[in-house]
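Hello everyone,

My group is preparing for a crystallization screen and wants a predicted model to guide construct design. The compound we'll soak is zinc ion. Before spending weeks at the bench, it would help to have a computed complex in hand. I've included the protein sequence and the ligand's SMILES below. Output in structure-token form would be ideal because that's what our pipeline reads.
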Amino acid sequence: MKRIYMVMALVCLCVLGSGAAGVKHGSVKTLVDSCGFFPQISPDGQWLLYSPIEGTSLMLKNLATGAVTTVSSVGHPGYDAIFGADGKVYYVTQQVMKKGLVYRTGHCYDPSTGENKVVLKAQHGQVQALHAARGVVINGEQQYYRNNNRVGAWAYTRGDKLYLVDEVGSTRVLQPVQESNGYLWASLSPDGTKVMFEAAARGLYVCDLNGQVLAELGQYLMPSWYNNNYIVAMSNAGNVRTSGSRIWLLGVDGEVCKPISARDERAVQPMVCNGKIVYSILYSGEVKQMELDIPAATWQPATQGKGKTEKVKNPASKKDVPRIYINPGHGGHDSDDRHVPTWVIGKQDTLHYYESNSNLTKGLALQEILTNKGYETAISRKTNYTEDDLDLFEIVALAANSGADIFFSIHSNATGIDKRINFPLGLYRGWDGQPVVEGSLKLSDLVMKYAVQNALAVWTHGERSRGDWSFYDWGYKVGLGVLRFNKLPGFLSEGSFHDYLPERERLLNDSYCWLEAWNQSLGIDEYFGRKGKFKNSVVAGTVRWSDLQRHDEDKRVFGEDELLPINGALLRLYNGRGVLSRVYTTDNLDNGVFVFTNLQPDKYKLELYYGGENLYESKKVKVKKGKTSYINLKLKSTQKPKK
Ligand SMILES: [Zn+2]
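Reply:
Good plan to model first. Here are the tokens for the complex, ready for your pipeline.
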């Protein structure tokens, strides 16, 4: 890790002396016993906001009396709530509209009066409650709300850009760190001279107001300013199901970097207000509070004046275009990836199948297909290195920050070698039939419906959609890490089983991965009420010997997978006017797959050649608008060519 030293280091040392900052003796207190996540403490230290793990409700606890009030339990209000310096609660809710678009609304709740009102009407895209220097902004893509006329400067992120809005409302767009799959958690220092943000997979940065990087602090998430020289953040937790996280105190100068929460406690989601640090314990949802023996910054008092809603000038996003956040699972061929060595017939172990490879091929294909269909997309990785294998907290936060309408995680499945089966499985958050986020089950069902229509695969079972809490026996409501803390309608697609060996050989073929993504796009079209709106069509199939058996080391194969696929078969596709429109040669990886993409509807003729220019088969294929025509061909090894 590189550290950039600067003038500020001197300032910091003056304040701290030897830098012996630590937790005040006896200051760690438990504020909530269970189910408390995304904790926020009020400026006067009297109130605690928190939500259950799914963000399905927003709770407010009076720390003096212990009384708990539900602020809201509609539209996942739990994840974006903050306190203003005025002591009021600002939060965002979401609503899935008729055609799958998610609209988000800004609210304000006053704990002293119990008044709860809408301050920013529903709009499509990203809407977030953010701290400004002297107030709160609920920032939307079409409109934003400021809780007073002079909130001062503020910062936010969208995609891989950092936006700084100054006192008079003019915005600067900065990109201090290149090659990041998105920025998160931007905020100005208490004195307004620096801004901190996280660049996904790259780490936590502090820069000046011109975007000049001042410090590179390493892999920490969900940062919060303690004072002008110190930041409190959580460590990158990796796979949160198996490894822990701690709360850290980080010097902006890079000199101080120490954990302040207990080892093995799995502390997450820290937030600082007027020297009080609150954080949650993963799984239990215990909320704790601690104080440090160094002076904290105090929040600037709220400026008086009326709140106001304003239109955003030059909105960057198109209104009401469905937006999809794509997450190709795993990354980097390391421990959390899934690897199956491949025995290509006659060439033992010459290739390695990694789930991260086919997930990425499918993800990039899906992004391209959806973009061509006019959707907006964002993707969690475009390459396949350990460094871009994001933390699950980052993935979920990036998806939410993108303002997407759905979250789509791409994987393939495995059962272990003795059971070898193959079927598409959609996993959404919740119990079977009871998704935590509205729309998730519908989306999963639609995508799975098209997935199982893929006639190149041999399916041993029909498609399924399951709730992750019911599906995994990892503990009560544990489920999939990547769906934890996710509030977007969405699911994880286990497209097929990569340890069913003929399927793994198909997944080594990029066209086959493309076909899975294409089928996913058809499910997405239907979810957003766009079924049949797109003209492009597909012809796909396999070529196998009708009288030769596979001789894999594993004989557990089903149906036509018992037949040996034909490598190096040449397919020619002629359009209705007899013009050669496409050519495809099956690869040498024992899958027999061919796919012709982006075809115009027409009556085509498909010809199969083998061993040079020897024509063996000629078939008519009718291609309908927006549909896939499947055609599996077989050749007898003793068959003579037609010409
Ligand atoms: Zn996976």
